[in-house]
Structures are given as C-alpha cells and as structure tokens.
Amino acid sequence: MRSIPLTFCAAAAAALIAVPAPVALASPAAPAGDDDRRTGTVSITPSTIAPGGQVELWVDVCGKGRRAKGNSDAFTSVAHFRPADDKGLFAEARIRSDAEPRSYDVWVTCEDSDGKATGTLTVIHHNRPSPAAPVKAGGGGTATLAERSAEDQGPGTRHAVIGLVLAAVAAVAVALRTSRRRREAAGS
What we know:
By secondary structure, the protein is an alpha+beta fold. The chain is built from 5 helices and 9 strands.
C-alpha cells in the first residue's frame, strides 16, 4: 500500500525536473544587434596598460583593404584602422591619462561592411604617487627635523677628525699597555 504514494511522489518530482528544460530551450534569442557586434575579436597589445600608454589594435572581420573605426571609453580619440600586411586591419590608440584602473570594452565597426568586433583592455596604475619630501604633518614638526638631519648625515670633516682622535687614543692605550707588560716581564 505504501508503494503507490511513493511512486506518485517520484513521478511528480521527475515531472518537475523535466519541465524547466523545455522552458529554457523555448526562451527568446538574444537581440540581433548584440550578435552582430560579437562577430569578431579585437586583438589588443598590450592588453594591460597604464594611463597615457599606447596600444596596438588588430582586427580581421572587415576584410582586406577596408577601413574601420574603433572606440573605447579608455581612448583619447577614435582609432582609425588601416590595411596591414595580410593580418587584417591595424590601428594605434592612446589611453587617456585620467583613465581609472579597471577593464574597458573596445568596439570596432567596419566602414565598408557590416562586420563588428569587440575586445577588452585593462588599465592599471603601476606607481602610486608618493611625497618627494617629508610631509609636514603630525609628530609635532619632526618631519622638518628629519629633513634637516637627512642633509647633515654622512661622513664629513667633523667625522674624520673624531675618527682620527679615537684611533690615536687607542694607539696610545695599546702602546702604554705593551710597555707596561715589557717592564713587568723584565722585572720578574
């Protein structure tokens, strides 16, 4: 008697699992504009760059001898592609000096055809700005003292004189001790 409810529950669970699959297959396709835009890929060299740098862009979706335009929020201006050696189209683009460190999309649109391509580049900041001199904050003005003492550091004439005096005192102490030992040895 208990096998009938168990069978019924198993059949209901199988039906629930099988229902979402046809629903997912019947979902509408992506808009045509999005598919057209992904017909090719932009090759970006280097793909990671600092602000103010320059990248090389290659694309082969437009066909040989044609032209294209490339754009990105990271570029200072539109990149104009021109024909290159059997590799498709080539362009150079400069990265904005105020570009934030993150990934940026690059879009290329062919002028003589419907070809489109996309790519991604990453802007990074290599060097963080650092103060060139001590910051005059906190420590009760010790930054100013540290700046002055940094200029006074290093061996100078004063240090050389002190070193010579100490060496002379050590030489005299060694000479006196040696002469005392000789007198004690001679007196024994």
